[in-house]
Amino acid sequence: MSSSAPLPDTAPPPPAPADRRRWFALAIVMTAAFMDLVDVTIVNIAIPSITGDMNASVSAIQWITAGYALAFAAGLITGGRLGDIYGRKRLFLIGIAGFTVASALCGLAPNSDILVAARILQGATAALMVPQVLSIVHATFPAHERGKVFGLFGAVVGLGAVSGPLLGALLTEWDLFGLGWRPIFLINLPVGIAGLLLGAKYITESKAPRAMRLDLLGVALVTLAMLMLIYPLTRGHELDWPLWGHISMVGSLFVFGLLVLHQRQKAIIDGSPLIELSLFRVKSFAAGIAVQLTFGIGLGIFFLVWTLYMQMGLGWSVLRAGTTGIPFSVAVSVAAGISVQKLVPRFGRKVLQAGALLMIAGLLIYLWEAEHYGMAITSWQMAVPLIVMGVGMGLIVAPLTDAILSEVPKEHAGSASGLINTVQQMGTALGLGLVSVVFFGAIGDRLAPQELGPAFVDAFQQSLWWVAGVLGAIFLLMFALPARPRAHVEGEAAGDDLLAEQPALKG
User: Fold this and answer.
1) Of residues 401 and 126, which shows the higher confidence score?
2) Considering the entire predicted model, what is its pTM?
3) Which H or E run includes 374?
4) Other C-beta atoms within 10 Å of 454: how many?
5) With pLDDT > 70 as the criterion, what percentage of the chain qualifies?
6) What whole-number distance in Å separates Cα of residue 504 and Cα of residue 421?
C-alpha cells in the first residue's frame, strides 16, 4: 500500500462544480489505490499457503514480497515524472492495465520462479499507477473540495489496512473452484478491467506545465545497488553465505556512491536529478529519512515472520491467522486519526517517540507471552500486545511525513514526498531480505517434523528482539526531528502526506 509523485506547480482549471464526472474519476483512482494496498496485505497472509503449494525455497518466500517492494520503490519517482510529462490519465491507464495482467500471471503461475517474476512486474506497474492517484485528484478537484477528498483517501487507506489480511484469509480458506490461494490475485482482474474501461471514460487528462526530465541512469543505479545488497541476503542462508555474496554487498556501497556523484552532476547539467541531494542539508529531513528507512526495515521483518510463526510454527489456519491481526489493524487506524487531530498539535515530536516506545512495549509483552504460553498461545492472548503495538504504530505513521517535511522548502515538497515513500519501500525490501538472517538463520536445516513448530516459535522470538532493537534506534533518531512539526504546504502537502503514509500501513 505505496506512490507519492511531485505534484504540479499549477493545475488546469477544474471541471465545473455541476460536472459529476470528477466523482466517478475519484472512485476509480481510489479503487486502484485500494487494490494496490490490499494486494500487499493479502499476499502476506497467504505466503505459507503459497509456499506449501509450490514447495518454495526460503529465498522465494522472501522475494514474493520483497520483489514487489523493490520494483515499486525503484519506479515510484520515475512513474510520477512520466505522468507529469506524458499525461497522468495515460500513465494511470497503462499502470492499471499492467497491474491487471501481472495479477493474472501471479494467479496462474505454475511455480515460484514465475510467481516471483510476476510479483516484480506487479510492483513495477503499480509504480506507474499509484503516483498518478493524487496528481489526478489535485488536477481534477478545486482547492475547497480537496480536504474532503483527502479525508476519503485516508479512510480508504485505513479500510485497506483492516480488510486486506481478512480478505486474503477468506479467499484462501474458501478455496474457490479448487484454486487455493490463487483468487487473492485473480480478484484483481474484474476490478482492473472495470477501472481501465471507466477510467478511459471519466478521468480527465492532465500534465505538469514544467515537467522535469527523466533520470533513467539514476533509477538503474538505485535498482542495481539494492539488488546487490538484497539478493545475497535472501540467498545467503540457502547457499551457506558464499564469497560472491559478501563481495556483492560491499560492492553495493560503491554503487550507492556512484549514484550520489551522478545525482550531483545531474543537478548541475539539467536541474532534474532523481534525488534532490540538497534536501539532506535539512537536519530534520535527513533524520526523518533515516527514521523512515529504519522503520521500513522493522516492518519488513516483523510482518513476514509473524505470518510464518502463526501458520507454520503454531499450525494455525490462514483464517485464524488473518482474524488474529484485526485488533492490530483497527488500533493502527484509530491511533493514526487521533495522533494527527489531537495529540501532535499539543505534544509534537513526543507523540512519535511515544509510538516507538509503545511498539517496543508491545513486542516485549509478545515475547513474554510467546515464551510463557509456547505452542498453546491463543489469538485472544495475542490481542493485548498487538493492540499496544498497533497504537504505537498509528502514533508514528500518520504524523511522521509531516515531521520530515516541516522544514523542507516549499519548492522541494513534491520531490521530498516522493523520496520519503521510495525510502520506505526500500527499507521494507531490505527488512524482508534480512528475514533470511534473523529468522531462517535461527532455524536448523535438518529438523524432524515434530521439531519444526517449536523451531519456528524460537526463531520468531529471536526476530522480535531484532525488531525491538530497530525501534530503539528509531526512538533515538527521532530526537533530530522538529519538536513541533508545522504544516508548511497546504493542499499539495496534505495529499502527499496521506499517500506517503500508505506503505507504512501495508504491513
Assistant:
1) 126
2) 0.81
3) none
4) 13
5) 86
6) 9
